[in-house]
């Protein structure tokens, strides 16, 4: 509305604005099928609770896992799940990328005057993904209530930062896995093992995996930064792997590095996109 | 005012080449076992603003690959390419507001939403000023007879209706260049006629440059003053339609072109 003279204005629509615009239109499209939307939302809500039940069952037999009590584990679970669920809601449009490329519809993304990434992230956005938020929010609430912690401003900030950095890191992972679709169109399963796999890995205390795998998850796929390292600080728990203290606060750096990598990879993929036959 | 004077071509290609499977880029190691092939092999093309050019050739000749390079979808392997002063792949997002693309075989509209919603979304995405958008939508609604199905979900439209919607979608932002990839494919006689008359009128009324690929001789005959034919990625004819059908009927000549006879004389 503000711009009455768009003639010389050459700037494309800002990526986040385009994203929100597309999210809105996809939500409208999804709401055309109301019953299906309602049922799948409820289904999402229940399936995300299943993991939680598994954790509760384990703790009915043992007092601690890898040195972590039930509220501590639920805190780890809650932060990871929350970060993942939000990233899933925001960015899992990337999962459609392989199909888009295979059917040639990705061509249509590239003829629009807005960021290709914004279009892909928003693709087929559906409100049902919000169903996944319920379980982690409740769990985290309960864990925070049950933890015998003295909350300081610093701890609260780190706790919020944990979720935010985790969410950014997962979004970057989504984009990177999307890049796999450019190289091998059938590779969505491989891609899923990175996103969903890393999520599953970090919702338990990392110490249950033992040192080699735990370190691999920390440094190769910097998944551990999502919740593990900052949560050790919040919970006042020593690092079972004995890593240096500063890593507790390295999440923003890890998120920034991975986001940068994802952006570079995406650009390279667009440049080398091969399209389909006709 | 503008950087392009009337003599400058709006589309300029020199030695434009696209090879698949052996691209010399960062992914060099990813060689295909089938050796790769060259879809477009050194094409030279100069199209002046306001021209309506038919781009023809048999299936697999390299037409779609050319158009995908002109839109910035594909990166050329080598050669020079400028569209409206832009290097398409590098300036893809900025170029997008100056070009319109219609794919006869796929829709750019939002399947589950009323046709009109796709248009209003495009207004935002292309940043079309509201008054301009209103004018254009009113014009195209009348010219392409969209009124009766503007509020219907795209999935419920007939092919002919959908194509008219797609053409409108490609033009609402007043593009300087429009690529139409088989816009009349699968349409009935009446719809084909309507689309042709519309395109001819668009070209004359607004001076929009149009590049049209088609397998329908009647499209070419009705619309194009100039024809560029390619085969195996090389230009086999580039000239006026009148020269092309000087001594025989167009269909025979086109069939011969498709069978691989080159009509290119070394001049131009």
From TrEMBL, chain A:
The chain crosses the membrane at residues 37-62, 157-185, 206-226, 246-266. Pfam families: ABC2_membrane_6 (PF06182). InterPro entries: ABC-2_transporter-like. The keyword Transcription does not apply. Keywords: Membrane, Transmembrane, Transmembrane helix. The keyword Membrane applies. It comes from the Bacteria. PANTHER family: INTEGRAL MEMBRANE TRANSPORT PROTEIN, SLR0610 PROTEIN-RELATED. This is ABC-2 family transporter protein. It comes from Actinospica acidithermotolerans. The lineage of its organism: Bacteria, Bacillati, Actinomycetota, Actinomycetes, Catenulisporales.
From TrEMBL, chain B:
GO terms for biological process: response to antibiotic. Keywords: Antibiotic resistance, ATP-binding, Nucleotide-binding, Transport. GO terms for cellular component: plasma membrane. SMART domains: AAA. Residues 11-257 form the ABC transporter domain. PROSITE patterns: ABC_TRANSPORTER_2 (PS50893). GO terms for molecular function: ATP binding; ATP hydrolysis activity. InterPro entries: AAA+_ATPase (IPR003593), ABC_transporter-like_ATP-bd (IPR003439), ABC_transporter_ATP-binding (IPR050763), P-loop_NTPase (IPR027417). It is found in: Cell membrane. It comes from the Bacteria. It is a peripheral membrane protein. This is ATP-binding cassette domain-containing protein. Its main location: membrane.
